[in-house]
């Protein structure tokens, strides 16, 4: 059974940075696509960024240039470095492991 454990969320001021981590456990996971999604209050869940086992990444347009997704296949971990955070980035961020595994979510709040 796959388990995803996220960490790194919190409260940050506009313009600040946070780094989210997601540790995955289970079998045959290092070849799967991993991703970060988020759900802001009153909105639908949306893709933030995704990364293949080979390191190819793609981003939602509003995150390009500010967010960076990376992964450590040896330790089954995916990261999301978030810079230049804006209040509209406030959301619960979820780790995803293909095909259908989700983390419990970690709250990110951007506010002064």
Report helical residue fraction.
under 10%
| SS-based class | mainly beta
Helix and strand element order: EEEEEEEEEEE
**Mean pLDDT over the full residue set:** 94
- Tell me the number of helical segments per DSSP (H or I, 4 or more residues long): 0
Task: State the distance separating the first and last CA atoms.
Answer: 40 Å
Largest sheet: 7 strands, mixed
Q: Shape from CA axes? A: globular
Instruction: Report Rg.
Output: 13 Å
Care to count the β-strands? 11
- How much strand? over 45%
Low-confidence stretches: none
Question: TL;DR?
Answer:
It is built from no helices and eleven strands.
Q: How would you describe the overall organization of this protein?
A:
The protein is mainly β. It is built from no helices and 11 strands. Strands 2, 4, 5, 6, 9, 10 and 11 form a 7-stranded mixed beta sheet that branches. A 4-stranded antiparallel beta sheet has the order 1-3-8-7, with no helix packed on it. It starts with a strand and ends with a strand.
Please specify the SSE layout and strand pairing.
Blueprint: E1 3-7, E2 10-12, E3 18-25, E4 34-39, E5 46-51, E6 57-59, E7 67-72, E8 77-82, E9 91-97, E10 101-102, E11 106-110
Parallel strand pairs: 2-11
Antiparallel strand pairs: 1-3, 3-8, 4-5, 4-9, 5-6, 7-8, 9-10, 9-11
């Amino acid at each position: 059974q796959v388990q995803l454990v996220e960490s790194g969320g919190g409260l940050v001021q506009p313009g600040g940075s946070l780094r989210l981590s997601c540790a995955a456990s289970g079998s045959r996971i290092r070849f799967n696509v991993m991703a970060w999604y988020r759900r802001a209050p009153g909105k639908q869940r949306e893709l933030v960024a995704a990364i293949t086992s080979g390191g190819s990444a793609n981003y939602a347009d509003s995150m390009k240039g500010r967010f960076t997704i990376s992964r450590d296949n040896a330790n089954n971990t995916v990261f999301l470095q978030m810079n230049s955070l804006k209040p509209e980035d406030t959301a619960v961020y979820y780790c995803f492991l293909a095909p259908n595994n989700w983390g419990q979510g970690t709250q990110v709040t951007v506010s002064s």
